């Protein structure tokens, strides 16, 4: 069976990656499935800071030692890992596709590692105005109240990692702005198809939904590429806390990172400063701000898991 070629879409959550994935899926040479998340555990096995029931620090050192004992060392290990993943991609894609598109938003954490493992792959970085991403996360996952402390890993680790990747100017990486995708769709998608070496004419601009265990819960709002969502963020980031946090994040990102992404620090700052000031959702946002102080000391799910393990142990030995 002919080997499959991977295509990776790297982005922050709420950047429009599911829309892009749905459109590309309509091409006869491109297969995909809802977010696989496959490479996160595989390429994180050698990383520090992973939570698990077992001692990950010991596992990481043991795997590093095993890696050196595999024939060919790290290169031999990576060759087997690459072959394993490609076989799974081929099985998921079927026999007729040339490409398998893996779109998993948190791949931004390991994007460079992914491209090092798959040097012949094609990759797309999908940018979106970070203030629009903030607003979309609040509306979609926060029940319209401040919840962005849950996504610090995306804003403060993921986005800078993608900027660094774009700055590397790898020949197999193509950058696309969500705003261009929805306002200049033909021109933008033709450029993307050229990058993938597929025919633009085969794309369907009214793509079917992708239904999986995880993925975009709002994808059914639009059955085709639409610019209707472009300005919604302005009505979300209007109270004093949201404006202050938005300005603070833009200052942290800085003009150079925003320039690489295709945005203007001055323009975004001006829009957030000039947008109407309201007190809407301020009470709930202040509670969210208090939660954000506690959040870095440990996620609730980790503590709950540890407590459950402790209870099970006491019941077993009682």
From TrEMBL:
Transmembrane stretches in the record are none
Single GO molecular-function term? protein-tyrosine sulfotransferase activity
Which Pfam families does the record match to this protein? Sulfotransfer_3 (PF13469)
Q: Which UniProt keywords apply?
A: Transferase
Q: Does the keyword Iron apply?
A: no
Q: Which PANTHER family match?
A: PROTEIN-TYROSINE SULFOTRANSFERASE, PROTEIN-TYROSINE SULFOTRANSFERASE 2
Please state what the protein is called: Sulfotransferase family protein
